[in-house]
Design a protein that fits this description.
423 residues, 13 strands, two-stranded antiparallel ribbon
Length: 423
């Protein structure tokens, strides 16, 4: 260990590196670039993961959206093309038959997916917006960020109350938003019927889900009374339990609904669905794959750089043959010569890695500052696990020692007499 605290040792390392500035710099680039890639790519992958987590925060990612379609197979005397239906009573049967279901949110809508909408007016201002009849549980599927007031509650459902929760765009169009006018308790006209505003919500830019800030929500029972839909449901939002396989739940739900509606078990068109859980799993798998690929690429690049350091040290040993011979003739032990070369290898490797690490962190800080307030871009707080970085640095040092053994052993094998004869 005394070699580490010897002033002469560090002076020799300094002079050796200074005398070959360009060579040393080019050698350090390899390892530094590998660590830079490792840190920036790993941090960027984590930033994407954080961004999607933020984008889908408040949203049940293990959910299935299911709606009724028409049959494409004749069954039990019924021709193909028969329309299927969803009803409120189907909810209890599905939950009893499929225990993996956590909860189901039924919804009815007018004006979604570009189908027009309903007229909402106030004080001479009017426009057409999407209207959705919902239960309080619907806010668990896609949590609305409330700017004013509250969401629909059980009392609204039971009393079939004429209350409405409007999107922020509707609020801006119908109220004097620039004056921060409080809309709670005020009325808007929906198709000739007055509704009291109980809440205003905001939707994230670029956020997932079926909700936009040009949508208004009213109690499901009020919707049924207003549009005479009875217990019919446009679509179910079904959330599976955390430990359940969402793909299995989707198939079980469709099978059960086919039995209820008297459709063929083989009919693939009777009910349509969108499996958000499956899509979200694909996304998380892609992000995990990116992180794994980053580790592989960074590690291989670092290894290539360390090998380059070994090659440069071999050249250095050849150039310093006479110097090493003189040291051996003056009594330097083989171990001292070996440790000198190994220490030089570790110094170059560690210095390169630290420079690459600092550069990578600096780039991540710039990316974080540039995307901090960009809610529509799925990138947030790019960070690296310092445990992974410490492991990479440790591997670099070990590799530096192992690879450095090659030139070190070559230096040890130099005989003093032969070295002194070298010109």
């Amino acid at each position: 260990m005394s070699i580490l605290f010897s002033r002469d040792t560090w002076q020799e390392i300094y002079h050796s590196l200074r005398n070959n500035k360009l060579r040393t710099f080019l050698t350090m680039i390899g390892v530094g670039w590998g660590m830079f890639l490792y840190v920036t790519l790993l941090g960027a992958a984590k930033g994407m993961e954080n961004g999607f987590d933020k984008l889908f925060s408040g949203f049940a990612t293990n959910s299935i959206f299911l709606w009724a379609q028409s049959t494409n197979i004749p069954y039990n005397g019924f021709p193909k093309g028969r329309l299927m239906e969803l009803h409120l009573q189907d909810i209890d049967r599905l939950q009893q038959a499929i225990p993996q279901i956590d909860y189901i949110s039924p919804q009815n809508s007018r004006g979604m997916f570009g189908s027009g909408g309903e007229t909402i007016s106030r004080s001479g201002k009017q426009a057409r917006y999407s209207i959705t009849g919902d239960f309080p549980v619907g806010n668990k599927i896609s949590e609305k960020k409330l700017v004013y007031g509250r969401y629909i509650n059980d009392a609204d459902i039971a009393g079939r109350k004429n209350v409405i929760v409007i999107g922020e765009e509707i609020y801006k169009n119908l109220f004097e938003s620039k004056k921060n006018e409080n809309p709670i308790g005020q009325s808007v006209n929906l198709n000739g019927i007055f509704f009291n505003v109980v809440g205003v919500f905001r939707v994230k830019q670029g956020g997932g889900g079926l909700t936009s800030d040009q949508t208004a929500f009213i109690p499901f029972t009020t919707f049924a009374k207003l549009y005479n839909t009875g217990d019919k449901v446009d679509f179910f939002a079904i959330v599976s339990k955390p430990d359940a396989d969402v793909n299995v739940v989707e198939e079980q739900v469709k099978t059960e609904l086919k039995q209820i509606n008297g459709a063929s078990p083989e009919d693939t068109n009777a009910f349509g669905s969108f499996n958000l859980g499956k899509e979200f799993k694909k996304l998380t798998g892609f992000l995990a794959g990116m992180q794994f690929l980053t580790i592989i690429v960074g590690t291989l690049t670092i290894l290539a750089g360390v090998i380059a350091i070994s090659n440069i040290l071999l050249i250095t040993v050849t150039e310093r043959t006479k110097e090493i011979g003189i040291r051996r003739a003056l009594g330097a032990k083989p171990g001292e010569v070996r440790n000198q070369i190994l220490l030089e290898s570790v110094v170059i490797t560690l210095s390169s890695g630290l420079l690459g690490f600092i550069s990578g962190i600096f780039v991540l800080m710039i990316l974080n500052a540039a995307t901090r307030d960009q809610d529509s871009f799925p990138f947030y707080n790019p960070t690296v696990d310092y445990g992974n970085v410490f492991a990479a640095m440790s591997i670099m040092v070990v590799l530096g020692l192992v690879i450095g053994l090659i030139p070190a052993q070559r230096a040890v094998r130099i005989k003093p007499i032969e070295a002194l004869r070298t010109e």
